[in-house]
Amino acid sequence: MKIVGELEQMVSEDITLDHRVHARIIGARGKAIRKIMDEFKVDIRFPQSGAVDPNCVTVTGLPDNVEEAIDHILNLEEEYLADVVDNEAMQVYMKPPAHEEAKAASKGFVVRDAPWTAGNTEKAPDMSSSEDFPSFGAQVAPKTLPWGPKR
Q1: Contact 59, 44 (CB under 8 A)
Q2: I need a surface site. Which of 8, 71, 79, 102 has the fewest CB within 10 A?
Q3: In what order do the strands lie in the sheet with 56-61?
Q4: pTM here?
Q5: What is the C-alpha separation between 19 and 51, in angstroms, rounded?
């Protein structure tokens, strides 16, 4: 009867908790949230990914415990949110302005007066021609193998 009486006294409250701080409140492998739930003897449920309201967190337990847990969580949110806002501001500061990125990306590499361009009427040089590629008088020795059978 005592357990049934406690279950009947339990309440659930939904609070709005910025989704950007959920991971910090939950902690690595849920360690931080388990500590909070054990300390205040409450159950805390975060929304599933893709939920209608990603900021809605449900705290369930005895009324006094729920109120204390909510106060604690909202204090943590305030601390963590200041860090999140600072990090976002730092990311904006560190990232180059968008107009410089667009200018650099649009300029690209341009080849002009190349043999394959449409406006050029000259033919591309013939690589096997001694006229297009003279040898400057040097004799090219035939390729020989340093060792092995001779042909």
Answers
A1: yes
A2: 8
A3: 11-16, 56-61, 42-45
A4: 0.55
A5: 11
